[in-house]
Amino acid sequence: VVPPPSQTITPMIKSYKSLTNPLISTFYYIFGGFLCMINLLVDEMAITLDYNSSILKDVGAINYFNDYALLLEQTLYLDVVLGDRERSQGGLLGYDTVINWGYDNKQVRYLYSFHNSKMKMQLRFGASALRNYINQYKLVYGKDISVLDILKSLDSMSDLHAADSKIRLSRIDIAFDFIDEDIYVPDLYNRLLKDDLAIFNKRNMRVNLNAFNGEQSVNTLYFNKRSSASMLRIYNKKIEQLTRKDSEKFKLAFNCNTWTRFELELKQYYAHNITAHILSCKDNNELQSVLAQSFIDCFKIREFKGYDSNQNEIYENTLFYEDMILFAHSTDKLLMSHSYQQLTDFDMKYQNLFKNGTMPFFKMIQEAYGDEALEEFFDKIKEDLEDVPLDKKQETIIQQNKNAIPFFRN
User: Of 52, 267, 22, which is closest to residue 150 (Cα–Cα)?
Assistant: First the structure.
């Protein structure tokens, strides 16, 4: 039996409650004998951590990174909650060294570059790692720890360590889960094709569907590119959880009729920008408002309602998007975007990569060997850059662009 669609429920009769899991905030209501839920959560995050240059120089890199790993353990109790730390073979994401706590895909990772002090450090909580850490923490200490607690602890640790700059998020994924809300990804896809449904960005410009994954039916939709500062994924979470061998939510997925996730991935300047907003939160209720406000700031989900007297298209928020707004308690813009900059020498040189065959060459490597091999290839390029000389004209261009907003953030 499929529960009645959320369209028959007015937001007025939905109640908000923060459940015992500090990772999740939830709207829940019972209608027609069915429990329906809308969850808001942080799915994963990566935090950039800065050095204290003076200490690094005084004690040396080996001692510095070992001491910092110990400091992370003491601050977040990583060894007690997840077990002793281990060093991975090889690097990751351009970093040459990775320290792990936990096991398999539930590892919390501390990344640094032993041979490149210009790269800052990073602490990464993948989706499974973040959930596992929070759950294990409660089992060990008998009390909750939230995303807000984690970030504030790292921020305090950074201050105590006298780091050269504050912590900042380099990535955060914010997810809305609609469980038994009668929202189907194939239906959304068909409505997008018919222009009955539309996605709009921060500037209220329409965003086209970038890609979709699916076999007989479409189960994942992507808006914006992976390289963008913000990307929206809409996918069938029920199918994902039923097909994963280590699914933590298999029972929930099995018992529900629909489970659709709307997931916002923030990187670059948007991730940096949201950091200060999160750290200013006094509690998890304020956090959930910031998360929801960031979501509705970046993307609007609206349906076509017809034309006005001047034949302009009229769009209104979908009812499930209105539910997201209820979490935010505000429709004010939260995240700052970069204004357009005049074309620079760097812009022009980047455009030349498409003309001189460099970019097609990168694409050929990706098509031939896959994304992981492409990342390895870029790591190889980073190594070779150490031996690339620059002439006076190139040094001048560098100086001219040092204080400018990077062209690839437009």
Answer: 22
Please give the DSSP secondary-structure letter assigned to residue 407: G
Closest CA to 42 of 120, 106, 129: 129
- Between CA 295 and CA 262 the distance in angstroms is 9
Q: Which single residue is written with the structure tokens 């939510």?
A: 249
Query: Can you tell me the distance from the alpha carbon of 173 to that of 124, in angstroms, rounded to the nearest whole number?
Result: 12
pLDDT digits (tens, 9 = 90+) for 219-243: 999 999 888 999 999 999 999 889 8
380, containing H or E segment: helix 371-385
> Does the pLDDT of residue 4 top 90, yes or no?
no
Number of alpha helices (DSSP H) and beta strands (DSSP E) in the chain = 15, 16
User: Comparing C-alpha atoms, which of 179, 176, 183 is closest to residue 292?
Assistant: 176
Q: Which spans in 142-247 are helix H?
A: 147-160, 185-193, 237-243
pTM for this model (two decimals): 0.76
pLDDT at 125 over 60: yes
> At CA 376, angle to CA 373 and CA 378, rounded to 5?
115
Per residue in 369-400, pLDDT (tens digit) is: 988 888 889 888 888 888 888 887 788 778 76
- Both tokens of 104, joined, read 């398999």
Instruction: Compute the chain's Rg from CA coordinates.
Output: 23
Find out whether 321 and 384 touch, Cβ atoms under 8 Å. no
Sheet strands (E) in 90-133:
97-101, 108-112, 121-125
- SS3 string, 299-334, reads CEEEEEEEECCCCCEEEEECHHHHHHHHHHCCCCCC
In Å, how far from its chain's centre is CA 394? 35
Number of other CB atoms surrounding residue 76 within 10 Å: 22
